From TrEMBL:
Domain of life: Bacteria
Keywords assigned: Aminotransferase, Pyridoxal phosphate, Transferase
Signal peptide boundaries: none
Transferase found in the keyword field: yes
InterPro entries xref list: Aminotrans_3, Aminotrans_3_PPA_site, PyrdxlP-dep_Trfase, PyrdxlP-dep_Trfase_major, PyrdxlP-dep_Trfase_small
Protein name: Aspartate aminotransferase family protein
Cofactor: pyridoxal 5'-phosphate
NCBIfam families: PRK07480.1 (NF005682)
Record family assignment: Belongs to the class-III pyridoxal-phosphate-dependent aminotransferase family.
The keyword Transferase is assigned to this record: yes
Source organism of the structure: Litchfieldella qijiaojingensis
Pfam families: Aminotran_3
Length: 451
């Protein structure tokens, strides 16, 4: 079928996620046909470096035949069975064991879901159940952060702090409260990064006192806020947050959907920041995105209560721990271990990207270039000296994103913040290519703005 025919059908029948349906109809979609390594290919014959690993998920890169074989073998053996009640199957059990080996030491259980959003719905259920079992049903409030993304189901969207989603979403899940994010470049430059990190932790304590110190059940956050703009918190932030949560006996939920599975150079972002979460939602890189699977890693404190005191937990999904998805996820983790992918990010590729990415800070359009592991961001500014931002109506980030795409690089824009999170199997040479393409796109953006 020709591209134009596919585009016409797409326009006629397909409502894309996070898309202005009408604008899509006018422009027509780019059709991605195949992919290999870190490159995707489209129906026009273009090869594009996927600087976003799909949606932050294709950690092992495209075209891994071992994953295809794991899927087909499992499809032949047992294409489906569930884990409800008292049944299970080998892939789910083996994956659970592997995850608990890789997780922080106090984490020894996992509850499987089909996605990251479902994982966060599960978090909400577990947090509320835990405090009810502990005889503290008044602990209902969950504190999250502005601009956080925790999924698109009603619970995920309510936990998240994306204002446009809240505005469209109708009544939200009640008793979720959002505090400021530790986004130094965007919101904290009147203080040093370290002071600002502490200010943001103090905002959590202030909110706890406002809501009532006995009423707060949990705090949820990503180690590094991903979809919000690849926001690495100042070094003072997490230690101060940990102190606040311990003071008021509040559960810590660390959303590892993006940061898990090597993105920051550790198996989990929690290990990078020395966090001991009670609950860790996971998805994406768990299967390198080859098949949909997610879950919640459950720390001993919550797990023991749910197991010993909980009785039946009325919650689960038809595809919780789907055997084919679990088999692929297990193979994915085994390959990552065998190839030392996570160590490669920590010791080699992450530091290499940091050095190369930092060179973009010299560009006249860039106010800050930051990275950690294989996640990076560029803050585009109108005035380099003052760091002043562009008028939002100019949509400079989207302009730069589109220029990138046309010239062979997927970079994401969040407002005027440009983001990368390439496959963890990218080579040093491909990092050079990525940085060169980004620099060219910045040059071209500057030219277009000057017109
Ligand atoms: N949590 C975080 C931090 C995410 O980035 C995402 C997706 O981008 C989700 C949860 C939701 O995951 P899913 O899209 O698999 O439902």
């Amino acid at each position: 079928m020709h591209s134009q025919d596919l585009q016409a059908l797409d326009r006629a029948h397909h409502l894309h996620p996070f898309t202005d349906f009408k604008a899509l109809g006018e422009e027509g979609s780019r059709i991605v046909t195949h992919a290999e390594g870190v490159y995707i290919h489209d129906s026009e014959g273009n090869r594009i470096l996927d600087g976003m690993a799909g949606l932050w998920c294709v950690n092992l890169g495209y075209g891994r035949q071992e994953l295809v074989e794991a899927a087909t073998a499992q499809l032949r053996e047992l294409p489906y069975y569930n884990n409800f009640f008292k049944t299970t199957h080998p892939p789910a059990v083996k994956l659970a064991e592997k995850l608990c080996q890789l997780a922080p030491a106090h984490v020894n259980h996992v509850f499987f879901t089909g996605s990251g959003s479902e994982a966060n719905d599960t978090v909400l259920r577990m947090v509320r159940r835990y405090w009810a079992l502990k005889g503290k049903p008044e602990k209902q409030w969950i504190i999250s952060r502005e601009n956080a993304y925790h999924g698109s189901t009603v619970a995920g969207m309510s936990l998240g702090g994306m204002a446009p989603m809240h505005a469209q979403g109708g009544p939200l899940v009640p008793e979720i409260s959002h505090v400021r994010q530790p986004y130094w470049f965007g919101e904290g430059r009147d203080q040093s990064p370290e002071a600002f990190g502490r200010t943001c932790a103090e905002a959590i304590e202030a909110r706890i006192l406002e809501l009532g110190e006995d009423n707060v059940a949990a705090f949820i956050a990503e180690p590094v806020q991903g979809a919000g703009g690849a926001i690495m918190p100042p070094a003072s932030y997490w230690p101060a947050v940990k102190e606040v949560l311990a003071k008021y006996d509040i559960l810590l939920v660390v959303d590892e959907v993006i940061c898990g599975f090597g993105r920051l150079g550790e198996w989990f972002g929690s290990l990078h920041y020395d966090l001991e979460p009670d609950l860790m939602p996971i998805a994406k890189g768990l299967s390198s995105g080859y098949l949909p699977i997610g879950g919640v890693l459950v720390g001993d404190r919550v797990a023991e209560t749910l197991i010993e005191e909980g009785g039946e937990f009325f919650h689960g999904f038809t595809y919780s721990g789907h055997p084919v998805c679990a088999a692929v996820a297990l193979k994915n983790l085994e390959i990552m271990q065998a190839e030392g992918v996570v160590e490669g990010v920590r010791d080699d590729l992450g530091p290499y990207l940091a050095e190369r990415w930092a060179s973009l800070a010299e560009h006249p359009l860039v106010g800050e270039a930051r990275s950690l592991g294989l996640m990076g961001a560029l803050e585009l500014v109108a005035d380099k000296a003052s760091g002043g931002r562009f008028d939002k109506r100019l949509a400079v980030g989207n302009l730069c994103r589109d220029i990138c795409f046309a010239s062979g690089l997927v970079m994401r824009s969040v407002g005027d913040t440009m983001i990368i999170a390439p496959p963890l199997t990218i080579t040093r040479e491909q990092i050079d290519e990525l940085v060169a393409l980004a620099r060219d796109a910045l040059d071209e953006t500057a030219v277009r703005l000057a017109k």
